[in-house]
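Because discrete structure vocabularies remain unfamiliar, we reproduce here a specimen of the format, pairing a chain with its fold in token form:
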Amino acid sequence: MHKFNDFDYLTDGEIDLILEKKLGADAAKGYVQAYIYKICLHDSKEKIGIIDMRIGHNDNTKYVGHIGYEIDEKYRGNNFAAKACRIIKEVALGYQMYKVIITCNPENIPSRKTCEKIGAKFIEILDLPPDNEIYLRGEKKKCVYEWTLNN
């Protein structure tokens, strides 16, 4: 497990990522440690979505990815997910993670477009193993994108 670095507040001047919590790793569940942020309009406490950054690699990260995001419905269509990804890459780079995985459901066209907007490369559509937690919630496949991070 890595020491948590100080990434409590990140911004691009349009949106802010404000740390909500840090989650420790749980090897039994296949979880790596993670930072969970609320996404807010700059200088506002109004939450418009969430984004998280998972640190490190294990068997589970190929299914859940390193970055997960969701934008509240009334704020969709403004590229906030792509902007938040570009901001959160600072956390990945802080851990010398130069390639990260982002996954989404194959039918989630907005998320797939977000991956394309940030320059992530489509790798494959992966079948989830039947014992995987996501599979047990009803999701059977994931699109896998790899994003090479540059400073």
Q: What stands out?
A: The longest strand covers residues 15-23. The chain has a mean pLDDT of 93. Residues 80-94 form the longest helix (15 residues). DSSP finds four helices and eight strands in the chain.
